[in-house]
Design brief:
Belongs to the metallo-dependent hydrolases superfamily. Adenosine and AMP deaminases family. This protein is of the alpha/beta class. The protein has one domain: Metal-dependent hydrolases (TIM Barrel, Alpha-Beta Barrel), CATH 3.20.20. The protein is 44% helix and 17% strand. It has 16 helices and 12 strands. Helix 7 packs parallel to helix 8.
Length: 372
């Protein structure tokens, strides 16, 4: 099991040890460098580096491009080694082990099955392989006296809208064997959710939960389409919703803000924003507000009462963990432990789980924070 490389502290408490919920974490963005090297060797694939530290550095440096399109190019390497049942199962198993080591008690793992078929797997076989790795890791955690729960989110790539209905049907087929929701991923600008309308109509008819990447590399129209065409219950990133906020005036103690109809709807319906602070900086999602975490609209959205959640997006590319993301936000905005607990409760409330299981998750979070 891979342990976190650093113990992040707040008020003398280990953030790593606190119970956490991860809603936005890509399977192909969370591989261990050593695993990439070993799987590439088995498949005869060339890599940009063959030493774990050098390979990790390569991913992190390429991810600082300030563009989502450039950021996504690094996935050619990780997806390339995830083309066999054995490889998918190993990556999924280690992924869950690493989440558990970071204190995550519930995680949703998103990935696009149709990217993993080049060596003969079917869509269903790929999903089964990932689930087998998840099940192995969960069993190991439980055998050691720990607790973690995991659900799969199946993603359809925006640039291939014709595949969406097939992935949607795949997700529904596996709803009783580990898949908890549907997602869209890939380049956002120019590929609105409306291009996948048939898939979203089908998912709605099956009462199947949807989250849509929106408000990351495109603005308010993309968010509108996610909500209207996609019936999204959550927004992947969603940070550009802040474009619908008008700061009317500020003084030494207060900022006075008016909300547009779109942002008011998102707030009133408690539609969760799956923010990923480090990734949002790397992809340029918050470029209009600034270049540092302190300029991220996260705190403004939080103070206004939006259901903000904290996520990693891609732990390998961003060189991060959920504990690190929380620590960075605490440093940037002077958050305390009760703020961090709020973010976990927000995520638990937005999880694609039955209400009774969400309430159990909320209880686990409360007990864990009360114990420190």
């Amino acid at each position: 099991m891979s342990a976190p490389d650093f113990d992040y502290l707040l008020d003398g408490v280990s953030i790593n040890a606190l119970p956490k919920v991860s809603l936005h974490d890509h399977l192909d963005g969370g591989l261990r460098p050593q695993t990439i090297i070993e799987l590439a060797d088995e498949l005869g694939l060339e890599l940009p580096a063959t030493e774990p530290h050098e390979l990790r550095t390569w991913f992190e440096s390429r991810s600082e491009a300030g563009s989502l399109v450039e950021y996504l190019k690094t996935f050619d390497v990780t997806v390339g080694v995830m083309q066999t049942a054995e490889g998918l199962a190993r990556v999924a198993r280690e992924f869950v082990e690493d989440l558990h080591a970071d204190g995550v008690i519930y995680g949703e793992i998103r990935w696009a099955p149709d990217q993993h078929l080049t060596r003969g797997l079917t869509l269903d076989q790929a999903v089964d392989a990932v689930q087998s790795g998840i099940d192995q890791a969960v069993a190991q955690v439980e055998a050691a006296g720990g607790y973690i729960r995991i659900g799969q989110l199946l993603s359809s790539l925006r640039q291939n809208p014709g595949h969406a209905i097939e992935v949607a049907r795949l997700a529904v087929r596996h709803r009783d064997s580990g898949v908890v929701g549907f997602d869209t991923a890939g380049p956002e600008a120019g590929f609105p959710a409306s291009s996948m309308r048939a898939a979203f109509d089908y998912l709605a008819s099956e009462w199947f939960p949807v989250t849509v990447h929106a408000g990351e590399a495109d603005g308010l129209e993309s968010i509108r389409s996610a909500l209207l065409d996609g019936r999204a219950l959550r927004l992947g990133h969603g940070v550009r919703l802040a474009e619908d906020l008008l700061i009317e005036r500020q003084d030494d103690e207060n900022t006075y803000v008016s909300l547009g109809l779109l942002s008011q709807w998102v707030k009133d319906r408690e539609i969760a924003l799956e923010t990923s602070p480090t990734s949002n900086l790397q992809t340029g999602a918050i470029a209009q507000w600034g270049q540092t975490l302190a300029e991220h609209p996260f705190d403004l959205l939080y103070q206004l009462g939006f259901r903000v959640t904290v996520n990693t997006d891609n732990r390998l590319m961003s060189g991060t963990s959920l504990s690190r993301e929380l620590s960075l936000l605490a440093d940037a905005f002077a958050y305390r432990l009760d703020d961090l607990e709020t973010f976990q409760l927000n995520a638990a409330a937005a999880a694609f789980l039955p209400i009774e299981e969400r309430e159990e998750l909320i209880d686990r979070i409360a007990v864990g924070f009360d114990a420190v």
